[in-house]
């Protein structure tokens, strides 16, 4: 079994003075939710997600060896980086990056040798409830791995992607599912031998054509800052009265999804996905302190989807993240009808009528 120590490099064969890389990494939407973690961002239960295509972060990482960049006024024993968001310095993002670099330094011992300029932008609104930490941490991890590959060109592709996912995980758990593949599993599961708590893996079996180009239309119900940070949310699962049962349920639901991905049974898919979304929120409603992250319009949308599905038999369903926005999931062949329904009946529940059309995608890309 692969252990975290396998990702601690012994020595590098090459040296690199300066340069830059640029990667884009997508957001992802969990079908079986990760909620609750152990030390070191080890998940309390396995999760599985669809990788998105349009909602992404694009990050350019420029690097210069400190000894040749005396003009940069850097201290040898500290991380040295500038952070730009949409081209402007963004001081309030820096503590998160600092913490990330501290956590991953053991895996990338060259980090303090360089001054970095991290220039990042999203294709979707920041703090819209769309996981910008997932795409952001994944994009940064990919760039850092490109630099490590330049220092050690022998590295295999498997190592590159596994380690990129491991690093992303240390930035934000769900980010490890934004690296590679359309359907990504993270966390040990008895029936997926490749699965790991350390990094996300591409779902290792064939997936039924019903899921090809699966659509995700994200309805922006409330674009405000998150009421509960995911760090606090995960913490609430410690001493939660239903935690152990919930963790066991996630294993069972992932097991059922394995069969559903093969059979293409959309009715069964809908049951698992909607139940997972409501369970995630139920965990928050039954923790101490307790939270309601849905808004009245979230419930209006859910009820409208159920009514539409009942009346039309079109296999459309919803899922939720730790917020009020609704992800509407449906197969490509019913897109036209579902988009019509969204425009006619759901847009009125969105803040400023805003929604984002996305679909299943392939993961991070070097630009
Ligand atoms: O990656 P984090 O720590 O922000 O946690 C995200 C958790 C959920 O989005 C609610 C569920 C998931 O599996 O993505």
TrEMBL record:
It comes from the Bacteria. Residues 25-194 form the Diphosphomevalonate decarboxylase-like N-terminal domain. GO terms for biological process: isoprenoid biosynthetic process. It holds the Pfam family MVD-like_N. Residues 218-346 form the Mvd1 C-terminal domain. GO terms for molecular function: ATP binding; carboxy-lyase activity. Keywords: ATP-binding, Lipid biosynthesis, Lipid metabolism, Lyase, Nucleotide-binding. The keyword ATP-binding applies. This is Diphosphomevalonate decarboxylase.
